[in-house]
Structures are given as C-alpha cells and as structure tokens.
Design goal:
The protein contains two helices and no strands. By secondary structure, the protein is mainly alpha-helical. The termini are far apart.
C-alpha cells in the first residue's frame, strides 16, 4: 500500500485568510493617513476621516490586485 500523498493543487493558505490580513494592513494605512491628514494637513475631522477611508479602500484594492497576480488567480 502506498502511503505517499499527492501535493495539493492550491496553496495551503485559503484566500479568505489572505484577504483578512490585507484588510487589516489596509486599515492600518487608512488610519495612519487619517491621523496624518488631521494633524499635519490641518484637515477637519470629517475631511481626515474621508481621506483615511479613501486610503483604506485604495490600498485594499491595490493589495488584492497584487495578490491575485502573485497567486496566478484569474
């Protein structure tokens, strides 16, 4: 009886875990941009919050595009 196993066809880390890690990193980027805009940029609270949310969405979408390219997903 053969006890060897075939290699998995997909990576062992599911896509949901990778997207969660990317979302947490993008949240850090958005938070930092919002704080920087509020303190150094002189934005109002709502302007800084809008800039932080925009930075979050932009960095998350960019990271997902890079992840799809690196993993070879179509």
């Amino acid at each position: 009886m053969d006890s060897t196993q075939n290699l998995p066809s997909r990576p062992l880390v599911p896509r949901a875990i990778l997207v969660t890690i990317l979302a947490l990193g993008a949240a850090d980027v958005g938070f930092a941009c919002g704080i920087l805009a509020g303190t150094a940029g002189g934005f109002s609270f709502f302007g800084a919050a809008t800039l932080g949310a925009t930075a979050f969405v932009t960095s998350l979408m960019s990271a997902i595009i890079v992840m799809k390219y690196v993993r070879g997903d179509d």
